[in-house]
Amino acid sequence: MTLRFPAVLTYRPIAIDLVSTLIQHVEGASSDFRHELITAFGEAFNNIAIHGYRDHLDGMLELEAMLLRESITLRLLDNGREVDFGHVEPPDLASMPESGMGVFMIHALVDEVDYRAGSPNVLSLTKRTVSEKAR
């Protein structure tokens, strides 16, 4: 399934509501699962809208969702600025920074993060209800 949104923060609540509805169809998705994936998705949406399309109000974000029985993968596609995930430093958590936490949170809250810069940039977030070790 594919959805398209203007990549501006006013559309973030709508995108989050739609992702939340999709999560209902993942077997065994707990409230923690829902909260973690929604938080990671929201951070990714923020980064694309604020940083990827900085100074551009016409940017679009395409969301592809792949639902499996015990997992969901969200692929966010955009044509904004590329992010160099290899050079994103972990935040100093002791200082409680007010910004720069998004990428750290995304990695902490989902099982797999994959980013491919290009045209389009593609960020994939996968969350499972059952750990790989339990399989």
TrEMBL record:
Source domain of life: Bacteria
InterPro entries assigned to the protein according to its UniProt record, in alphabetical order: HATPase_C_sf (IPR036890), HATPase_dom (IPR003594)
Histidine kinase/HSP90-like ATPase domain residues: 10-127
Pfam entry (one): HATPase_c_2
SUPFAM superfamilies assigned to the protein according to its UniProt record, in alphabetical order: ATPase domain of HSP90 chaperone/DNA topoisomerase II/histidine kinase (SSF55874)
Record-given protein name: Histidine kinase/HSP90-like ATPase domain-containing protein
Organism the protein comes from: Labilithrix luteola
